[in-house]
Specification:
The complex is a heterodimer of chains A (299) and B (77). Chain A has 299 residues and is α+β, with helices and mostly antiparallel strands. Helix content of chain A is 27%, strand content 14%. Chain A has helices spanning 5-9, 23-26, 51-60, 125-129, 156-159, 181-185, 191-195, 206-222, 272-298; strands at 37-42, 87-92, 111-116, 135-137, 143-145, 166-167, 174-175, 201-205, 229-231, 248-252. Chain B has a single domain (2-71), classed as Nucleic acid-binding proteins (OB fold (Dihydrolipoamide Acetyltransferase, E2P)). Chain B has a five-stranded mixed barrel. The chains are: A alpha+beta (299), B mainly beta (77). The interface between A and B is medium-sized, with 20 and 23 residues. Bound molecules: iron/sulfur cluster (SF4) (2 copies). Residues 118-121, 124-126, 143, 160, 162, 164-165, 176 of chain A line the site of one iron/sulfur cluster.
């Protein structure tokens, strides 16, 4: 019998301590400081079960929010927020190939589901905008808000091109996915990817995930899903405007805007120099005009 | 303001779970004006000290916003 190696290593059902480096068994990756980690979300296998949303809320002790029904398909979560760090989007496509069609091409052609999350951007605009240094890059190359330093100014909120980070009305601080920073430090893979029953969310070292994703796109193309492409890998859509790449990237089968993703996200810091320059030019132009008017009046 | 007695059984950042004497758990977040700091929550959870939380209902969440946490005397120990 071919037993999984974990069975002989940990035969007891009543563990008296944590399994060291548990992520080796659950995600096939050893978590070490100094390396880049992220998520590869393959939307073609997401079944919309929301296990990721629940696992995130459970682990992070986040309250349920936006109580009520949205009327938007099976999505009553609505959006990412200060208390919701994973959001499973349900996109019902209508018309030919839509959810009401009698026949469907493979891989969720009519009904798209995607588990959205903070992208842990390589050049994170939220981090660049934070005036207190509360948002920092961790030793695992992820982006985290340090709660005791955040003063709730909210500068990060408009800086994020994906609408991820939000300031809570209850504690006045900015919140978003931490890529389970505390779990990574303890050798555990993030709660959402561990809970995902179809491996739509895969956690791992970024270079491994990017290679795995490229193979998956090729496989889907071979199976007739020519629309499959990556969003957030270097040079791909989503990694535009100086973001370089997203540590949480996605495999999509429709245009980014169908999933409520920006087509070409940019860094807010790219706009600082042009804005400053145009402001200075405006002041100079007004001062010149004023001096011209005043001097012509004196004559 | 309403109060709830119990013990802190889970802590994440400034959020904590208070388990009341009936064994029911409730979710709280510290108000920015709370007379307690997030760093004080973990020691309270470790010591399992009985506490009284003074709170208001949270906005748009199933949870409460703690305004004050008082450590209570241990009954019958
Ligand atoms: S997605 Fe938004 S919140 Fe997440 S790292 Fe990028 S800019 Fe920051
Ligand atoms: S747990 Fe996996 S399959 Fe379920 S909704 Fe989340 S991403 Fe989709």
């Amino acid at each position: 019998m071919n037993d999984h190696p974990r069975i002989s290593d940990f035969s007891g059902s009543d563990l008296d301590r944590m399994i060291p480096d548990e992520s080796r068994f659950t995600a096939g990756v050893l978590i070490e400081p100094g390396k880049s980690y992220g998520f590869f979300t393959d939307t073609t296998v997401c079944i919309g079960c929301k296990a990721c949303e629940v696992a995130c809320k459970e682990w992070n002790n986040l309250p349920a929010d936006h109580i009520g029904l949205t009327g938007q398909s099976f999505d009553n979560t609505g959006e990412l927020s200060a208390n919701t760090w994973r959001h499973v989007a349900f996109v019902e496509k209508s018309g030919c190939g839509g959810v009401r069609d009698n026949s469907e091409a493979p891989y969720q052609s009519g009904w798209l589901m995607l588990s959205d999350v903070c992208k842990h951007c390589h050049n994170a605009p939220c981090l660049e905008a934070c005036p207190t240094g509360a948002i920092f890059r961790t030793e695992f190359d992820t982006v985290v808000v340090q709660q005791d330093i955040c003063n709730g100014c909210g500068y990060c909120v408009p800086a994020c091109p994906f609408g991820v980070v939000a300031v809570s009305e209850n504690d006045g601080k900015a919140h978003k996915c931490t890529l389970c920073y505390d779990r990574l430090k303890g050798g555990l893979e993030p709660a959402c990817s561990k809970a995902c029953p179809t491996d739509s969310i895969q956690f791992g070292e970024l270079s491994d995930l990017q290679a795995r994703a490229a193979v998956r796109v090729e496989q889907l193309h071979g199976q007739g899903v020519g629309s499959a492409y990556l969003y957030g890998t270097p040079g791909a859509p989503g990694a535009t405007g100086g973001l370089e790449h997203l540590n949480a990237f996605f495999l999509l089968t429709d245009r980014p805007e169908v999933y409520n993703f920006p087509v070409a996200p940019t860094r807010a810091s790219n706009r600082v120099a042009p804005s400053l320059l145009s402001g200075l030019l405006t002041v100079a132009a007004l001062a010149t005009a004023a001096s011209f008017i005043l001097s012509s009046r004196d004559r | 303001m309403a109060t709830m007695d119990g013990r802190i059984t889970l802590v994440q950042e400034s959020r904590f779970q208070l388990t009341d004497e009936a064994g029911v758990s409730h979710l709280f977040t510290l108000s920015p004006w709370c007379a307690a700091e997030p760093a004080q929550l973990r020691p309270l959870a470790h010591s399992q000290a009985p506490v009284r939380v003074t709170y208001k209902a949270g906005v748009d969440v199933i949870g409460q916003v703690a305004q004050r946490i008082d450590v209570q005397a241990e009954a019958g120990r």
